[in-house]
What we know:
Blueprint: E1 2-7, E2 11-18, E3 21-24, E4 28-29, H1 35-42, E5 50-55, H2 59-72, E6 77-80, E7 86-87, E8 90-91, H3 102-115, E9 119-124, E10 127-133, E11 139-146, H4 148-158, H5 179-200, E12 207-211, H6 215-219, E13 227-228, H7 232-242
Parallel strand pairs: 1-5, 5-6, 9-12, 12-13
Antiparallel strand pairs: 1-2, 2-3, 2-4, 7-8, 9-10, 10-11
Amino acid sequence: MNLLIDMGNTRLKWAVATAGQLTAGSPLLNTEINRHELIDAWKGIGMPQRIAVSCVSASGLLELVQSVAFELWLDVDIIVATSQAQACGVINAYQQPEKLGVDRWLSLIAVWRQYRKPVCIVDCGTAITVDLIDADGRHQGGLISPGLTLMKKSLGQGTAALAFSEASHVFPPSPANFTEAAIYSGTLVAAIGLIEHVLSKQAANTQLILTGGDAELIAGQLDVAAIVDPDLVLRGLSCVLSE
């Protein structure tokens, strides 16, 4: 059994992998993570053979995770994943491969292992990232845009009259008659437009896969079919360990 940990900008997700099957645990918000929360989450899973970590969050959180892991399992082997020029059949398109976000790299590995066809991966998280991979496992590059919440916050920070709201109301992506709905709809339409524009330039058999915290919301508003897969990074970690 291996422990897989995906440390994003907002949440920590984790799962145990046994014989290639993932069993996900409850995600933890980065702002609420402490030593006791991690110990409570992992103390009942038994000692893993290895721990694989993807980390794009603050280094202090990674240090905390490593410290708790060694407290629970003194001699456990911890592997912190990094982006490579080539791994698991996938070729990285970046001129400096290590500069590609490791979460994006692991998602590419996961979709290549499963689909072996052209895929457009959209991570709808703090940032919206788009990555393309062809039928031969060659990464075609990607795009990065602010995520929905980041777009809303930037309006609040950059203007005097458009305050950011944490309200979770859902509005249709259409012209609105009050500011909160207009901001919600405008940011959602921006994300939809980005995804549909990129996909329109790809081969007709390109599979669209969404992941990340806003994936379900955005997928429900697209005019194209999409698969929502919340565990791409965790599955990518599992693939790396299996090599």
